[in-house]
């Protein structure tokens, strides 16, 4: 199970090590874990403070996203699924207030997020939406 690769432009030979330790490192030719050859990653110099401040200012530049005046007066909720009052109430709250949703598995957190995102997409059609779901 040997493979050749490059690290900082240098040729390296590495063998896969099994759980039982039967495979050996081709570079080290030995059997103990201490015989493995390791190389440090090249260290990058930190950014000078002036560049760091400039990058932060560029990142924090706020560009307002235009609101669609034809859709802002209403919000939509799907009617093709059975209405669950707690989901409807959470959606209504999340549309107008910062909200953290904590529900057990299978009670519709992703559905709620999708409905909220759909309405924000309607209101801000040129904006960017991001869903982080774990």
Q: Overall 3D geometry?
A: flat
Strand content: 5-15%
Give the spatial strand order of the biggest sheet: 1-2
* Proportion in helices: 25-40%
Uncertain residue segments: 1-34
Distance between the ends: 36 Å
Structure classification = alpha+beta
Number of DSSP E strands:
2
Radius of gyration: 27 Å
Quaternary structure annotation: single chain
Mean pLDDT: 74
Sheet having the most strands? 2 strands, antiparallel
The secondary-structure element order is EEHHH
Total helical elements = 3
What is the strand and helix layout of this fold?
Blueprint: E1 2-7, E2 10-15, H1 49-59, H2 85-96, H3 109-123
Antiparallel strand pairs: 1-2
Question: Tags for this entry?
Answer:
flat; alpha+beta; 3 helices; 134 residues; 28% helix; disordered N terminus
């Amino acid at each position: 199970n040997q493979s050749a690769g490059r690290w900082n432009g240098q040729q390296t030979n590495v063998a896969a090590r099994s759980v039982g330790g039967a495979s050996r490192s081709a570079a080290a030719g030995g059997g103990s874990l201490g015989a493995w050859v390791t190389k440090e990653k090249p260290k990058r110099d930190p950014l000078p403070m002036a560049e760091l401040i400039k990058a932060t200012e560029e990142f924090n530049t706020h560009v307002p996203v235009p609101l669609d005046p034809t859709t802002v007066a209403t919000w939509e909720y799907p009617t093709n699924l059975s209405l669950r009052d707690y989901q409807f109430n959470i959606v209504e709250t999340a549309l107008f207030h910062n909200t953290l949703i904590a529900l057990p598995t299978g009670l519709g957190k992703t559905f709620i997020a999708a409905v909220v995102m759909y309405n924000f997409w309607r209101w801000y059609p040129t904006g960017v939406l991001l869903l982080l779901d774990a």
